[in-house]
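Could you help me review a protein record that somebody else here produced? My question to you is simply how this chain folds and whether the tokens agree. Thanks in advance; the entry in question is below:
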Amino acid sequence: MKRFLIILLLPVFSAQVFAQVVIPPYTTKPRLGVGAEFGIPSGSFGNVFTIGFGGSGKFEVPITREFYATATAGFTTFYLKEDMKPLTINKSYVPLKVGGKYYFGNYFFGEGELGLSIGTNKNAGSAFVWAPGAGISFPVTKDGYIDAGVRYERWARDGGNINQAGFRIAYKF
């Protein structure tokens, strides 16, 4: 009878012990990351421009321990290839995106964003943006992290789409 009682109650006591080591479902605070952005244009846009360079700020709000809602604003300039300089000028844009970021474990994440990119040059117009990506975030101080990520980004607009491989490195606090 004692063995039966022990076998019956063992899962209950085990669950109580493991329940004490569960990580809380919510993190303590939102985070802001500020960083550098690099883009390598592809397709017809890549025939004219060599690289995009700029900066961005990304605000992350915890929804659960793993999932964060994100909002990103930045400024990016695409630089012409040497043989195209007499024909046109560098193009600058202000991308504004919202999305989500899911952490797989402590360091790795996947993310997706949607938004709008507004051209700053005359007649540049605006574009619908979608961007899936992945990266790593690791602590460097008690409240500071380095975020590094890569993404595919597509800007759909009248007059031709802009496709690019995007890279971001940021300090998040």
User: Anything to note?
Assistant: Residues 4-9, 12-26 have pLDDT under 50 and may be disordered. The longest strand covers residues 49-62. The chain has one domain: 29-172.
